[in-house]
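Propose amino acids for all 137 sites.
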């Protein structure tokens, strides 16, 4: 929703949950850096969202594969190595900035639908997306 105040970021008093949609593109790195610099204060959590595209999923079905940090959920081991490695680089960046992060992996055939449904479900107030060069969402 448009606030109309003309200011955004930490200085404007952003208090809601912040999520960053990530993938292997460079735009995701820029997005998380921007979110930390402008929306997230020190020691505040950030949600890292990644969607695995699975064409076998039917309309109306989606899945949260993992919604925890490593070792906190039995479902985490079901995420493939490539996805774990993707989250690892972002977790390292968050650790250096003293930011806690929560990894969430979604599976759906439509990336945009999966993100919007999860944002609504989890009551996320700020969703940051990086520009994707490889495909349109």
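Proposal:
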């Amino acid at each position: 929703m448009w606030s109309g105040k003309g200011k955004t970021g930490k200085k404007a008093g952003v208090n809601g949950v912040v999520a960053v949609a990530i993938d292997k593109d460079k735009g995701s790195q820029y997005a998380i850096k921007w979110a930390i610099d402008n929306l997230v204060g020190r020691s505040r959590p950030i949600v890292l969202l990644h969607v695995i595209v699975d064409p076998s999923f039917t309309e109306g079905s989606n899945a949260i594969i993992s919604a925890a940090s490593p070792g906190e959920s039995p479902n985490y081991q079901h995420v493939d190595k490539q996805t774990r490695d993707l989250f690892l680089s972002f977790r390292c960046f968050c650790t250096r900035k003293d930011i806690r992060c929560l990894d969430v992996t979604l599976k759906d055939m439509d990336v945009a639908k999966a993100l919007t449904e999860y944002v609504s479900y989890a009551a996320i107030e700020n969703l940051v997306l990086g520009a994707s060069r490889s495909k349109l969402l």
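Strands lie at 18-21, 45-53, 63-66, 100-108, 126-129. Residues 45 and 100 are 5 Å apart (CA to CA).
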